[in-house]
Amino acid sequence: MGRKEIVAALKTKFERQNQVAVVLLFVAAALFPFMPGVEGWMASQASLIVIYIMAAQGVSLLVGYTGLVTVGHGGFLAIGAYTSALLTKYFGIDLSLGLIAGGLMSGLIGYGLGLIFLRLSGAFMAIGTLGFAFFIGAIINNVPLFEGRTGINLPASRIFGVKIGDFGFYLVAVAALALTTLLIYCVVRSGVGRAFMALRDAEKAAESSGVNRVFYRTLAFSISAAITGVAGALNGHVVNYVSSEVYADIWYSVDFLVAGVVGGSALLMGPFIGGAFIVMVPFFLEKLADFAYILKGIVLIAVLLLAPAGVADLLARPFRAMRRRRLAAAGDSLGLVGAAAARAQTAEGR
Amino acid sequence: MHRKTKKVGTASPGRRVLLGQQIISGLASGSLYALTAVAVVVVFRNTRTINLAQGDFAMVGAFLAMVLIKDMHLNYYLALAAVVVACILLGILTERIVMRPIADSDWLTLFTATLGVYYILHGVAGWVWGRDTKAFPVTFDPTPINFAGTIVSQGHLINMGWAIAIGLVLYVFFKYTKQGIAMRAVTDDPDTAQLMGIPVRFIVLLTWGMAGFLAAFAGVLLSPIVYVSPEMMDQVLIKGYVAAVFGGLYSIQGAIIGALMIGVAENLAGGYLGAHYKTATAFAMIVLLLTFRPQGLFGIQKRREI
Fold it and tell me: How many other CB atoms sit within 10 Å of the CB of residue A104?
């Protein structure tokens, strides 16, 4: 076996290890309700973590892989939540259809907005998306269909006709998260993902090599909006209630961005760490809500100063170094594993 | 509601007085948005940072003013002076502690760092002063006075007067003082400015100080209108951003004109469509603007590659 084959085999092996790790994580998440010491109240908190992870995945796809910024994904969360809630209220549709509808609606609106925003350079886009979040807030506060601050009460969730409890809902959320994770994994690994990253790293060079900037960026924006929309639909059903008190708030939008940045937006595991962080900080500081804000701010700044590629990157460093050594021993000159490593290297270099 | 909209064009005198009033009070709130918009522009063009904490500098200033006036019974103008000093310090501290170590990063990192400052200031304000909305101790005499044929409140005129005075101070600063001219040089070309012996780091510090200076006035002047709470500036900040985009995030004049236009447009929308449409107006304007003239309404001499 030549040197090239050994290196290729090692890379395949590392890739397989990554996949197994993710699958094990999801198996553990699915077994969570059956673990000893788990009580009923933990179900909704766990569902909330799953929802934040999913929304952070949507933001990370833009921020990490496409190099676009969004401060308006709270708007897409609201669109997903209200789409599913209204369809459930007036047509009594199944939860599975509600999630799909929420995602589709968000994706469509994201597509339209993408056409406007993606012509802009970064800073203008940040302002535009922030304005979008405020606009959605104004709409759900004032258009009678959305019932403003009174809110819409929803019946207990049913999936495929079966009524589910809190832990049932949690399992549905985990299943949905597994699907979105798979989607992102496949997108990032495909030619589409490479086009995203090429546009991120060298926009002009990519464009002159035939990468259609408007098409790929609009696509990224739509996928990202759709994923956040599904998270929104789940977020409405987890408490069976939606109101503008919750969704007209700018905090969702900034929280998701923080989750992406803290976790590490260019790594598959980044949103998992970031989403859990954003949900658990206010939870542990329940009576000290203001300290939760301060802590989030301090952690965010500390991450930017010390580990610009995110906490996931920090945790992955020893593993990556180990693999790099093994690859180097096998004769690979670069010793890189995957596109994420390349991104992390750029981040280290800046 | 729609019937009202149709009547705008009719020539009944009462309606016209109302329209004039709407425009004057729109200009008054617009001139306060301009304080935020100018600060956003000044910071962005010197440091590539979209400062999300700009509104919170003002919010902290408003809380300080409230404490100084209500609890320490300080004179309004003395309190204002103290708040100005405090906000300038806040801006300078933000630059020294948070922004300077990452000054060479890409703009997304800079932007996210100001988001961290936003969180911290929100948390501190909520912790020290509480989350509920409070009335500001100084309110202006609400009796309307006759001004140029329309009836306006005194508070509006005072606010406009302050904004114009600050505008003049800025004009003199940028046009005649050494620091102001150096600041413009840094805007145009930081590298050459550095080679010419301009202390760029100090100028950047000064830029953040100016952001604090403008925030102090924005906070104190806005608090009788929007009341004092940790969230008081969120809506104002987004309008300041939109106004800044009017100037292409580069031109101060463009940002001021943009702010006045937003103030008038949202007041007209609020008067004729309903008060809740104010924020939506700002967003509608930004979408139109970004769709048709993404470089800003008034053209710009130079736009940075970001």
Answer: 15
Residues written for chain A:
350
Contact at CB, B238 and A301, closer than 8 angstroms: no
Set of chain A residues whose Cβ sits within 8 Å of the Cβ of B288: none
The list of chain B residues with pLDDT below 70 reads: 1-17, 139-143, 147-150, 275-276, 279, 294-306
Determine the straight-line distance between the first and last CA of chain B, rounded to whole angstroms: 44
Determine the distance in angstroms separating the CA of B115 from the nearest CA of chain A, rounded to an integer. Answer: 7
Q: Is the per-residue pLDDT at A90 higher than 60?
A: yes
The reply to whether residue A297 touches residue B123, judged by beta carbons under 8 angstroms, is yes
The CATH number, out of the four listed (1.10.443, 1.10.8, 1.10.3470, 1.25.40), of the domain defined by the range A37-307? 1.10.3470
- And the tokens for B199? 């202390």
Taking alpha carbons only, the member of B232, B247, B251 closest to residue B289 is B247
- Do A271 and A181 meet the contact criterion of CB atoms below 8 Å apart? no
What ipTM was reported for this prediction?
Answer: 0.82
Distance CA B184, CA B172 (A): 13
Chain B residues whose CB is inside 8 A of the A124 CB are 245, 249, 290, 294
**Burial call B7-36: b when 16+ CB within 10 Å, e when fewer:** eeeeeeeeeeebbbbbbbbbbbbbbbbbbb
Question: Do the chains contact at A300 and B104, CB–CB below 8 Å?
Answer: no
Q: Which CATH number fits domain B15-292: 1.10.3470, 3.90.1690, 3.40.50, 3.30.310?
A: 1.10.3470
Which chain B residues are closer than 8 Å to A142 by Cβ? 274, 276-277, 280
